[in-house]
């Protein structure tokens, strides 16, 4: 998911999801659904948890449960996304997670 259609606010929160799609094929779906729920201020779930006007802007990448893939994916976002990277969710596999 590239949720770039959201208006840019200085206070947006930029989070990446790094998952091994082959071993956790629902990871991206669950991550994107959770971001959608948090970003909706009127759905009754986590309403008003974010500062006024702020949204979570997210990207999901395939870490492939491999540290040699996860670290470059993370670094690509950290250096080339054009946004500050505030956090990373994942990688799910311990080797990848420790490396990132």
Keywords for this structure?
3 helices, globular, 3-stranded parallel sheet, Rossmann fold
Strand content: 15-25%
* CATH homology superfamily name: Response regulator
| Mean pLDDT, all residues | 84
Shape: globular
Largest sheet: 3 strands, parallel
CATH architecture level-2 label = 3-Layer(aba) Sandwich
Spatial order of the strands forming the largest sheet: 2-1-3
How many separate structural domains? 1
Give the number of helices: 3
Structural class: alpha/beta
What fold name stands as the CATH topology? Rossmann fold
- Tally of DSSP β-strands: 3
Distance between the termini: 20 Å
Helix/strand order: EHEHEH
The CATH class, by name, is Alpha Beta
Helix percentage:
25-40%
Rounded radius of gyration (Å):
14 Å
Task: Give start-end ranges of low-pLDDT stretches.
Answer: none
SSE map:
Layout: E1 13-19, H1 27-39, E2 56-62, H2 67-80, E3 87-91, H3 94-99
Parallel strand pairs: 1-2, 1-3
């Amino acid at each position: 998911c590239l949720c770039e259609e959201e208006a840019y606010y200085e206070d947006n929160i930029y989070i990446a999801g790094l998952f091994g799609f082959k071993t956790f094929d629902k990871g991206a779906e669950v991550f994107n659904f959770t971001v959608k729920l948090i970003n909706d201020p009127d759905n009754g779930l986590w309403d008003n948890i974010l500062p006024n006007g702020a949204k979570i802007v997210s990207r999901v990448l395939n870490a492939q449960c491999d540290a040699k893939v996860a670290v470059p994916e993370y670094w690509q976002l950290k250096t080339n996304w054009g946004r500050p990277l505030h956090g990373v969710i994942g990688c799910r596999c311990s080797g990848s997670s420790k490396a990132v």
